[in-house]
Amino acid sequence: MAVNINTVYTTVLYILNKEQRGYIPPAEFNSLATQVQDEIFQSYFPDGNQVNRPNQQNIQNDTEFFNMFKDVAYKLYPFERDAVFTYNVANLGWIWASESATPLYKPGEIISTYNTTNPQYDSITQLVSRSDYNKITQSKLTSPTNQYPICYTTQTTTVVAPLTVQQLNIKVTPLPNVLTINCLFKPTNPSWEFNVGTLGQYVYDATNSTNLELDVSEQTNIIIRILKYAGVIINDPTIIQTATAEAQKVEVNEKS
């Protein structure tokens, strides 16, 4: 479940205005919310690695709702989905071609489908370095097959007027008919949108606003982190210190 952008913004304003410490306009708030959402999203990967250590030592608490590694993995589920790549003849590789979609963050399991053969193969494809790819494909003994394909990744530059964009390019051998990859996508940037009321006030526009896509359990963490940045903007060290201390308490509690 996503975090409501209006709830976060009104809470931040309430805390800031309680003692007349300042005001964060919508444009600045949207920038802070985007930064904080990205920070929290990025933190899941080192956090997941850290809390997975008890799994490796077989001391993880596996009680329902109290397994920390599963909790971190659960928070990533909304950003995980299969992406069908498009073959680009010019690059002789498979690219993620949708610029309008949420940016692809990290590829996971790669499935190469060979549907013109009998039987059809949906093969897990091994991702290797370009150097290893060249060595493996040039050897008759290790040459990849439809059952055991290999691939490597590069970046390709594509012009999407008026911009030049970088795209993930995947070279697969043997060449499949379809390439599907289980990918993680970055969260959509949040945005608190508004209409101007009769008195010149900002009125929340739920239709055109974009909620934070992080799990609802992150709401307190989001508010605290935004307040920390807000303290920098309005040059109030008290807010920075208080928010930083609270953020550290949350982090220690989650990882202890």
Topology:
Blueprint: H1 5-18, H2 26-51, H3 53-56, H4 68-76, E1 80-88, E2 93-95, E3 104-114, E4 121-124, E5 126-127, H5 130-138, E6 150-160, E7 163-173, E8 178-185, E9 194-196, E10 202-204, H6 219-233, H7 237-255
Parallel strand pairs: 5-6
Antiparallel strand pairs: 1-2, 1-8, 2-7, 3-4, 3-8, 6-7, 9-10
Helix pairs in contact: 1-6, 2-4, 2-6, 6-7
Shape: elongated
Largest beta sheet: what is the strand line-up?
4-3-8-1-2-7-6-5
The strand count comes to 10
Query: Helix and strand string, N-terminal first?
Result: HHHHEEEEEHEEEEEHH
How many structural units, i.e. domains? 2
Distance between the termini: 25 Å
Structural class: alpha+beta
Could you please describe the fold and organization of this structure?
With 256 residues, this protein is of the alpha+beta class. It has seven helices and ten strands. Helices cover 38% and strands 25% of the residues. Helix 1 crosses helix 6, helix 2 packs across helix 6 and helix 6 packs antiparallel against helix 7. It is elongated and about 75 Å long.
